[in-house]
């Protein structure tokens, strides 16, 4: 689905992404791991249109999407979530979901005045869909809570829910487990697996929690210093000497020894 070819993104003399090439296959849950500063989030930002590539290209289903704007990629079904959830804090959780689909009739002043029936009909359908999404994610009980008042883990679930309000093909998740307690992390993991298996979502996720990666991801891509270092199953990359070397001092070597 996504092919990245010799991608570079430089900031002055600093090469955040330095010739990365990789493939994310349709229907996979691909993990992207690597030490801090490896270029993972920059790579996500280039793929998702938030940054323009310095050189190289990104293909989606064979189409060159390099340099397209986020809203153009959104329309193609490529979505990206953030390490820190971006919610409308003063709106309810349900309203946050209902905001997502574009081109709503109610956005036009003319329709708001003269096509009230059509606007009401659309809103009822959106509300129904939002409630179905909340039920799928097992967070119906917070539907009427202000989004700014819910926990960090619940905000991550709401972000996942926002991707379900449109026809997402591939979703890039940036550290979905950051600051989330184990119970909610399991709920998020269950939702990702169900979306993958039941609705055909393709996922690529950046994550530091190796247990979470091991549970969800195959394959796993390892980045270091802006380049792709290794790719394979969790077991394969954890036993790869180059990966152990790249992670030296950040705990993976100890984890490999402990699990070995």
Q: Helical amount among residues, as a percent range?
A: 40-55%
| Structural class computed from helices and strand pairing | alpha/beta
Q: How many helices in DSSP terms?
A: 11
Strand order of the largest sheet: 6-7-8-3-9-10
The rough form would be described as globular
Q: Kindly report the average pLDDT value.
A: 87
Spell out the helices and strands N to C: EEEHEEHEHHHHEHEHEEHHH
* Percentage of residues in strands: 15-25%
Tell me the Rg in angstroms: 20 Å
DSSP strand tally:
10
Low-confidence stretches: none
Quick one: biggest sheet? 6 strands, mixed
Determine the N-to-C terminus distance.
34 Å
In terms of quaternary structure, the protein is: single chain
Give the tags.
260 residues; alpha/beta; six-stranded mixed beta sheet; four-stranded antiparallel beta sheet; 40% helix; 22% strand; globular; nucleotide-binding; ATP hydrolysis activity; ATP binding; ATP-binding; P-loop_NTPase
Describe what this molecule looks like in 3D.
Strand 4 and strand 5 form a beta hairpin. Helix 6 packs parallel to helix 7. By secondary structure, the protein is of the alpha/beta class. The protein is built from eleven helices and ten strands. The relative contact order is 0.17. Helix content is about 40%, strand content about 20%. The chain has a six-stranded mixed β-sheet with strand order 6-7-8-3-9-10. The model has no long low-confidence stretch (mean pLDDT about 85). It is globular, with a radius of gyration of 20 Å.
């Amino acid at each position: 689905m996504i092919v990245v070819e010799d991608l570079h993104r430089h900031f002055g003399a600093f090469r955040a992404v330095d010739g990365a090439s990789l493939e994310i296959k349709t229907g996979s849950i691909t993990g992207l791991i690597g030490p801090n500063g490896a270029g993972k989030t920059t790579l996500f930002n280039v793929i998702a249109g938030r940054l323009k590539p310095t050189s190289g290209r990104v293909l989606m289903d064979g189409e060159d999407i390099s340099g397209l704007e986020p809203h153009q990629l959104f329309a193609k079904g490529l979505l990206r979530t953030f390490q820190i959830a971006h919610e409308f804090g003063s709106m309810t959780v349900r309203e946050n979901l209902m905001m997502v689909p574009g081109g709503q009739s109610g956005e036009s002043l003319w329709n708001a005045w003269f096509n009230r029936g059509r606007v009401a009909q659309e809103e009822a359908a959106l509300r129904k869909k939002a409630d179905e999404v909340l039920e799928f994610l097992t967070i119906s009980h917070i539907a009427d809570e202000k989004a700014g008042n819910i926990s960090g883990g619940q905000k991550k679930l709401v972000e996942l829910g926002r991707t379900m309000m449109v026809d997402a093909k591939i979703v890039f998740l940036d550290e979905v487990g950051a600051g989330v307690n184990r119970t909610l992390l399991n709920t998020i993991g269950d939702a990702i697996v169900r979306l993958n298996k039941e609705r055909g979502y393709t996922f690529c996720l950046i994550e530091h929690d190796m247990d979470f990666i091991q549970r969800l991801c195959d394959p796993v891509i390892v980045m270091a210093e802006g380049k792709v270092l290794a790719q394979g199953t969790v077991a394969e990359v954890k036993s790869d000497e180059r990966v152990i070397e790249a992670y030296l001092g950040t705990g993976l070597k100890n984890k490999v020894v402990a699990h070995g």
